[in-house]
Amino acid sequence: MKTLKIKITFTEEILGTASNNPDLFSDYIASKAPDAKTTEEEIEDLGVDGKVEKSMTIFPKQDGVPFLYDYQIKGFLKDSCKALRKVPGTVSSKVKAYKQEIDGLVFPKPRKIPIHVNGEIGICERPLRASTPMGERIALSISESCPEGSWIELEIVTLTDGMEDLVRECLDYGALRGIGQWRNSGKGRFVWEETG
After folding, report:
1. How far, in Å, CA of 2 to CA of 162, rounded?
2. What is the DSSP string of 3-43?
3. pTM here?
């Protein structure tokens, strides 16, 4: 077992991913939580403010501080490994059943990872385009945004020695594809370093 202590610094703004619609969250997303305590905790952390549009995505907050959940880091690692499996010679290309390996052998902590905001939380608005049977459709998407230079610190526990190399490789990929909403456009990109 090895614990990597890391600091992630965002080189592009990171966008919130939690719905600001309390009905959508409690009826659908929170119903997928493993237990009622988790459901209540996640709804409470959103601190939904009726003055903000329900369609906006936000960061969950604890005592006013935005944070990422540990499972968002794990999801990033799985997404990165999936892409890097196609690159010959990478650690990821050699891992079989990568989702099960990451789920069972890699554990980010703490559960709530505070974002140290570099300045103020802002708003990012962008158009969403879709081709539908009814023709082209355009909608506006709005998200809370933590600016470039914001950072997080966390630990990633790996239960086997080989997994720490996989984690490092996936974290390196964060410079190309980030965490959060609209990451295909470069949002949420980051650099990282080991701090201990």
Report:
1. 10
2. EEEEEEEESS-EE--EES-HHHIIIIIGGGSSSHHHHHHHH
3. 0.81
Whole-angstrom distance, CA of residue 159 vs CA of residue 2:
6
SS (H, E, C) 155-194: EEEECCHHHHHHHHHHHHHCCCCCCCCCHHHCCCCEEEEE
- Domain 2-19+51-194 fold is Alpha-Beta Plaits (3.30.70)
The pairing of strands 65-69 and 61-62 is antiparallel
In order of 121, 122, 164, 175, 189, the CA distances from 145 in angstroms are: 6, 5, 30, 18, 13
Torsion over CA: 88, 94, 99, 101 (sign):
negative
Express each pLDDT in 41-96 by its tens digit. Answer: 665 665 544 333 457 889 999 999 999 999 999 999 999 999 999 999 999 999 99
Which pLDDT value is given to residue 163? Answer: 94
Residue ranges per domain, the chain?
Answer: 2-19+51-194
Query: What is the mean predicted confidence (pLDDT) over 144-167?
Result: 96
Q: What is the rounded CA–CA span in Å between residue 163 and residue 105?
A: 7
